Amino acid sequence: MTKFLHTADLHIDSPLRGLAMRDETMMRTVQRATRTALERIIDLALKEQVAFVLIAGDLFDGEWKDMHSGQWAAGQFRRLEEAGIGVYYIRGNHDAVSQIQRKIRWPDNVIELPHDEPDSIVLEDLGVAIHGQGFADQKVEIDLAARYPVRVPGMFNIGMLHTSLTGSEQHDTYAPTSLEVLKSKAYDYWALGHIHLRNAEPICVEPYVTYSGNPQGRHIREAGEKGCLIGEIEGETLKNVTFHPTDTLRWQELLVDVSDDTSLDGVLAKAGQAIQSQHTRHGGLSSAFRLTFCGATKVHEELSDLIRRAEIHQQIFAAAESVDDEVWIEKIRFDTRPESETTTRDAHELWQAIAQQFAQAQGNPQAGQQLQELVKPVLDKVTAAHINLSEEGTLDERMPEWMEAAKQLLRSRLGAQNS
User: pLDDT class for 419, splitting at 50, 70, 90?
Assistant: First the structure.
């Protein structure tokens, strides 16, 4: 039985976004997260005694400032070299243009497939043929896979490709192709990169087509378990593919339904319990949570009171820290609504009238300027400790944020009057 490891999109030394640096422990964890993911991949490859490692693009993140990232990665690959494990790598859109990277002397076990044309590497002793092509430029808009060579008979054939496939909402369209093109090559396994969300199930089973996902989430849109895949081959047959987590900081979205709660203390306690439960479920791994409170609740007015919002935030931060000193809050969102239909109706009718005034102002530069002068200072005073209203962009671009802040304030005040 021959094993191989499939990974992609490591983005080594890429900054993780969405966490305020509140303490040294957090800073160390965040700054080392992508490097730790590669260390865990190397550890896993050695433990599982894989024959080779495939990296389907974006090993690094953009242009380097110095050689440190590459030298450190080369040192990690030397650990595999000592065990006789090969590394086969193609460039993606993020590491295509790095000139400094091209000066790095990789260990002899690291082979980068060319970026100007597809190539094949035949591993005679393993009965494996690897086909692939990296990115020559940051934006590759042609179908690279269409030019890949046909399968090598009598071997297990693997295609490596950094691609958006047929497209993704969260990723730019690079090296687009189709499942039909991939199937036409008659390979046995397609190791894909570029899409950071791992498939729960493969895109296709025959041939086996899959994204490994990135081994370390970098922000809340890359939430959940992150890792790599290990495939097992017997002759020309793929016997098994398993997922192995490698992330050291896990981003998690947590929905907290407070419909049944009657006090703010109860809501805060429920949030703490939810964080504890999720943290335990994920094995105590360092975690960054985004909390969203939802439901029709008697506590809506207190949660919507922007004057108290800073206090609520601090209490939730404290609840997270009491669970573990490596549990952090990325963002808190409030999507509750009042139990009273009267409050909802009054808020809706009044808001419709105010929204019409906003809409009219957007079409009239002079009226818009007057609205800015009247509304912005009020919102600033009310929300200074809780919401940072953007100073960037045009008035039209900032208006939706202002309207949302005004809507929250209106609902809060109407709720207080009706309670």
Answer: very low
